[in-house]
Amino acid sequence: MTEPCFLTAAAASRAIADGRLTSEALVRSCLERIETRDAAVKAWLHLDPRAAIAAAREVDKRPRISRLHGLPFGVKDMIDTADMPTTHNSANWQGHRPARDAACVGVVRALGAVILGKTDTVEFAAAGRRAATRHPMNPAHSPGGSSSGSGAAVGDGQVSLAFGTQTGGSLIRPASFNGIYALKPTWGTVSREGAKIYANSLDTIGWYGRSVEDLVLVAEAFRLDGVGHEPAPAPRALRIGLCRTPYWSRIEPGGERAFALAAERLTRAGVAVEDLVLPDAFGGLFEAQDTIMFGEGRAAFLDELLIQGARLGRDFVDRAENAKGITPDRMIAAHDLAAECRRAFSALFERVDAVLAPASPGEAPHGLQNTGDHVFNAMWTLLHGPCLSIPCTLGPGGLPVGIQLVGPRYADARLLSIAAALAPVIDAETAAQS
Amino acid sequence: MTEPCFLTAAAASRAIADGRLTSEALVRSCLERIETRDAAVKAWLHLDPRAAIAAAREVDKRPRISRLHGLPFGVKDMIDTADMPTTHNSANWQGHRPARDAACVGVVRALGAVILGKTDTVEFAAAGRRAATRHPMNPAHSPGGSSSGSGAAVGDGQVSLAFGTQTGGSLIRPASFNGIYALKPTWGTVSREGAKIYANSLDTIGWYGRSVEDLVLVAEAFRLDGVGHEPAPAPRALRIGLCRTPYWSRIEPGGERAFALAAERLTRAGVAVEDLVLPDAFGGLFEAQDTIMFGEGRAAFLDELLIQGARLGRDFVDRAENAKGITPDRMIAAHDLAAECRRAFSALFERVDAVLAPASPGEAPHGLQNTGDHVFNAMWTLLHGPCLSIPCTLGPGGLPVGIQLVGPRYADARLLSIAAALAPVIDAETAAQS
């Protein structure tokens, strides 16, 4: 039998349901994997093996009330946990211990999940200090950010589910780099309570898994509309819009290869693919996302500025002090453009069932300072709809590159069922394993 | 000299700056007023006089770095405070003590404000259990909600500044009922971190004061765009749109009188007033706000549902379980209508400088169960722009009724300076005192 730590969450869930696996055995397997790999990968900021085993034992005694029963989760360390520190990877927050779990942690814990530990993150999931996490397949490279530890831990077989967040591209980009699956659900459908605010119009809690079914387990927990009730489509019945986005000039060889391969595989599987060129207005979305991210970031870091004073890093001082000089007029224009494009994007789904787009420019970048470019993520975050990353291939440097499927607002369930149909086609390398 | 507790915040701030008043003396005066009045008004859920006096003494020793130096604040008890419980007026949260101040509390504390205590609120600022607070002028009546305690405490001379929140009309409506001033700033300009989420697209932190200048003190602390740099307009140079809103059929005699009186006083002062009829699309905003409030409320209370189980009140179970059956299509339509009307509303400000609208249907309602109707607030909350409540008159029942000025998104500073020019005209009863 596969070491339990390498199972998909869905497979582990079935094994637990059937009595073939206990939560304790699964958690122990994950902890062993982490012990072997942590010196190289450094995905975790907090890990208390004894407490995790104790929590798993408790869950093993309780009745199973959900498919998450007994499954371990990594939690990005800017999401509150009542029984573990929450440091935001900030020097000023070391030892901070919230009094209560963030809403997302509370939900999965109540359903029987075991919080394994806290994963490293770019400071406040925004800027400043980078995670110490290294790419599991090549320690000279970043695993991406800001959900660095969650992406690397899932990619490296240390845990099969982990929470991350996305304001620019912090969830989908690391999924692409680490060869794993991720769902950024529709903005507003999962409570962001207890996760550090950066830009409230954009920040979205999401999760990593090793298969589409893994993503569904968590989507069920959050009761996303229609999850579990969407019929599984046949690939031949699907129409996929190939969207190079207005930012295609920034694609790299790895990303270009993944996009072309995915399109080719879909075509071969009988999926109706067509090039989808977005209306001109969409060309302004990257800048609009940047304006809103920095413009709302002013309020998000003002208390830090006043409380930490000179201890606060320059990136956050700049945000709180509006170093970019963002004006009210630019904020209004950015919000109005986003609203216009959200509506126009919804209308495109009369012609296509999902949009296929790059998940990252290419492979994970060299060094830890550069966590990658969010140019292929920012516009989708601003559009508020679901994004789902699927592994696709390896780039010229031998590291994974994925693609993403994008849907209109609130169509998370539909996107998950389309992804379930198409992942075995797109994810040629790893589909056989899951 | 007036008892310090009855001073406006701006007057107290000047007295502290000039050395005529200490924070300790001001806090002691507030505490005496509370001791006299608390049995009747019940505005506070937590008050620790010794700790408040100690905090004031500490502030008196420190250099003055802002106009908030030494000023006491009430904080609605669904906003986190590190040194006081935060109960959300929920039976399940008694004794809960957050590890950190909410961002808004952190900001004013860092600037020298003294947190006097926590004020009563409708449970989670949403539904369920009502505040025990009574109207200061008539204990048979509600002071409004959900910011019940903050509104009543400021109205009753117990404190001159207090934080509240608005998702429907929870900030402006109690201001109208209690004869005080309030600012609901533009959505997104003040961090909502550490305040309970109800509907993230709507929830807005705001504050009460006893004059427009009081509101400015706090707006300065949050560095709202342009505050302190907007020239004070002359009333004769202003054009005010009189907006009865699409919901005028729900006005009561008190609200009608306040609206008519305000218009009459403005006209007499030489302000150019004109009737402003909103485009037809605005007629859908009340329902759209309701859809978004309940639709986003699903996610907000899911962790409560799973963790509290049978201990959770019916109102919150209904929200988490989507008892209203809100569909994705309705959510999308509501968001898109809001976006369309936000843009259209901004365009109206080529013709007018501010919009005058009812702040509540009329006077505070009888009994504590009904905290008042938010029909004249919900649409403005959804439009995201600033709303500023000004006392105007007494209704037929002898209780206060205010009006509100409304501005376009991000024009908070401009609205504050317009209100400073017009409040002495509109607030005929109390303007002389402040």
UniProtKB/TrEMBL annotation, chains A, B:
Region (Disordered): 133-152
Pfam families found in the cross-reference section: Amidase (PF01425)
UniProt superkingdom: Bacteria
One annotated GO molecular function: catalytic activity
Domain Amidase: 26-416
Family: Belongs to the amidase family.
Protein's name according to its UniProt entry: Amidase
Organism: Methylobacterium variabile
